[in-house]
Amino acid sequence: MITMFYISTLTLLICYIVMTLASLISKKTIFDREKNSPYECGFDPKGSARFPFSLRFFLIAVIFLIFDVEITLLLPLASIFNITKVFSWLFTSTLFLIILLLGLYYEWFQGALEWSK
Amino acid sequence: MESNCFVLLVEVVNYLVLIICVLVGVAFVTLLERKILGYIQIRKGPNKVGYMGLFQPFSDAVKLFSKEQTMPIMSNFIIYYFCPIFSLFLSLLVWSVLPYDVGLVSFNMSILFFFCCLGMGVYSVMVAGWASNCKYSLLGSLRSVAQTISYEVSLALILLSFIVLLGGFSLELFNKYQNYIWFMFLSLPLSLIWFASCLAETNRTPFDFAEGESELVSGFNTEYSSGGFALIFMAEYSSILFMSVLFVVVFLGSNPCSLVFYLKSMFLAFVFVWVRGTLPRLRYDKLMYLAWKSFLPVSINYLFFFIGVKSLCFVLNL
User: Fold this and answer.
1) Which of B16, B169, B223 lies closest to A38 in CB terms?
2) Which residues form the domain of B152?
3) CB-based contact B315 A86, cutoff 8 Å
4) Smallest CA–CA separation between A67 and chain B, in Å?
5) Which pLDDT belongs to residue B1?
């Protein structure tokens, strides 16, 4: 644990030093308002970049959330194998996975996975 | 107490050596990529700098670091500035799960740690795209995030089937259990799915929608230059190297303390480049269908199968 703490601190430090080095030795030219504006193929930027995006991306994130929670619930499957009866382990995991799989097929059937209609 | 401090020191120094070797490796992987792509497209690739272009990556690095750093006025500058640092930090930290017998941090839960790093990696891309406040960056980061999280599910489920089979979260178990047969032969389809998911996870070519240079200028890193771009680039290639190493650990089981391990990892890194030189980019909706409609059901069904195998082995006392 303490090793991990030192290691992550050191890694962060290394990355930070590299970035700082790049900022220090980079050749600065004159600051230009046109150069510092958001890149839009040479045109003046048209409107803000914080625009509404397609709801599909949001929906994918929601489906991902469901599956990730289910994976979190599945993860202890390996470590509880030694302390449970094998039949109850098999029964519960099978039940859980069947629900997961049927849920996926239901989403598929309902068209939640369709990207474009 | 004293010996404890000594062990700590050894582990930290070993890790630092590993990180430096990874960074040098990343430099040479870029050279390898350019060279192989060159020969695939029947041209030479870099062959002038140093001896036969061997010092090309270093001159590239010097060039990148001495370029001008832009400060986009519309961006949220602090977040914009720190995102590459965060991204490189994550992809270097994940190397600590490598199952060396001695001298490195030996995790019991290394696979969980790997998943954590993988999950956090999404944020750096998303925030980098959002903070630079450019339309191309935002679109690129949205695409990249949707793609990465989709493939992460099947990646986790594939690894979960092996976790169930081995009964633990440690990567060292993979060495032990693949003594007689590689998992690649045990479940070939799963290994192929894993490889494709790795390609999608690291935003490599058939799935490189994070920087679709034909429609978005450079994707989420459009606004980055010099140091920031270099760090993002290094993070990307370091995660590619890590994915190929992890493929070797999981499917082509061999001990990291042997030479064969490194030859296999080299070959996997070569395959990553080979795929880039061969396949055209997919369509975005097909990418999503591939993740949700074929990889996910297959990996869940495989998990079913492995649960059955595990209980059967237990019942038959194997």
Assistant:
1) B223
2) 2-315
3) yes
4) 7
5) 55
| CB–CB contacts below 8 A, A to B | 200
The mean pLDDT value for A87-105 works out to 90
Residue B212 or residue A86, greater confidence: A86
Residues in A touching B118 (Cβ below 8 Å)? none
User: Contact B89/B161 with Cβ under 8 angstroms?
Assistant: no
With contacts defined as CB-CB under 8 Å, which chain B residues touch A22? Answer: 64-65, 69, 226-228, 230-231
Which pLDDT does position A117 carry in this prediction? 65
Centre a 10 Å sphere on the Cβ of residue B191 and count the other Cβ atoms it contains: 19
Total structural domains within chain B: 1
Q: In chain B, whose CA is at the least distance from the CA of A96?
A: B304
Chain B residues inside the 8 Å CB shell of A19: 81, 84-85, 227-228, 231
Is A22 in the B-facing interface, judged by CB distances under 8 Å? yes
> Contacts from B38-42 at CB under 8 Å and sequence distance 24+?
B40/B274, B40/B277, B40/B278, B41/B277
A21 shares contact with chain B (CB less than 8 Å): yes
Residue pLDDT, tens place only, A23-57: 888 777 667 777 777 777 767 777 777 777 778 88
Which tokens belong to B28? 């040479």
Cβ contacts of A8 on chain B, cutoff 8 Å: 89, 93
As averages over each run of 10 residues, the pLDDT of chain B (318 residues) reads 76 87 91 91 84 84 83 81 90 87 75 89 88 84 88 90 87 84 88 91 81 73 82 90 91 83 91 89 85 90 90 83
Contact B243, B86 (CB under 8 A): no
The residue type at A90: L
Task: Say if the Cβ atoms of B92 and A50 lie within 8 Å.
Answer: no
